[in-house]
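Handover notes (outgoing to incoming on-call)

Open items:
1. Cyclin B2: sequence verified, structure written out, both below. Nothing else pending on this one.
2. Nothing else urgent.
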Amino acid sequence: MHTRRNTAVQENAGFGMDENAKPSDLGAAAGKAALGGGAKKGLGGVQTRRGLRDITNKAEEAVAEGAGKGGKKPGARVASASVGSADTGAAAPAAPAAASLAVASSSSSSSSAAVTQTTAPAAPAAVASAPASRPIRTASRTPTDIDQRDADEPLAVTEYVEDLYVFLREREIATKVDRGYMDSQPNVNERMRSILIDWLVEVHLKFKLVPDTLYLTVYLIDKYLELETVTRQNLQLVGVTAMLLASKYEEIYPPQIRDLVFITDRAYNRDQILEMESTMANALQFRLTVPTIYCFLLRYLKAAHADKKIVQLSCYVAERMLQEVSMLDYLPSVVACCAIYVARKNMGRTCWSPTLEKYTKYRVEDLMPCLGEISRVLKQEGGDLEAVKKKFSSSKFGSVATMKVNVLPDDSP
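Cyclin B2 structure tokens:
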């Protein structure tokens, strides 16, 4: 049920442990090319996969257009084209927006479908003025049922999807990493962690891995560093081994070990990676099933009635926050909510809606501390960490990283 493509990875990467080094200077040996600069070929094909269905609700708006033209869709009550979307208060667009998120993992498949909207009430007047090209849309006060449309879809498990997310909210507390773990690492600091994750974002992109793999990789790195002391020389080894473990958990075809040896510029050999894999798995007690930011992002984007741009901008903010150790102060569900809040704000939507509040169990007031930290991070952009910004500056991801992103309510639109 998955489509797959093969692509050759031609990257030759090194990773320096000098805390003052720039990513462009990183290398396992002096003079080696940084990630993205190599020209070697012959690396094994890397696999990718697509999700089963659109994770957003924008497909429903296409039905609304058909209803406005006299068309019918059996078993679904939809708003006419002249009536605003239940959560946006705006007329439905002419075509569904395709979600740009890569895929939903098997552990997140319960949240991978679009939703039925009931007939919406008339939209209230706009609450504030905004540029004509991006008007602010107001929200209905009545939450919508985001699972109604999938009642007959077995993979959506609508009968107990709510229970699943109640459980995940409990597990995110139990599996939370303590930010203070850096105090017990005499040889590693926060900057080194950020540089490592910046490099892994590029490796993840070159290997065409699913988004779940990146988020799980970062969690495994943090959790292992919380449990064990690591030297500077072995920090990159921990990073690639965490990606190997995450790939085996999330991917159909994980990268081969020889590919990981190659991508580290042969700083480590096959035996070292296998030994670290065993060490990490035992230290983590093989507990790889953890709720990540992406797990909650999938579900909450449905509740946000997200279009393509909101999906892309939410993913940009979420991935950028992976590099910040300060985000460990907040639960993954909170970071996911904040990413959606920022995306809706910058796309002219009302920042929060009754439907989002219903399914996330968070009010805007609950998000303010995390939003303040996100605002601080994004205002400091322009440093050495460029992988996420470069990735989301491409047209493939909507060039959302080139936008001026406002976060807090008092920021200019």
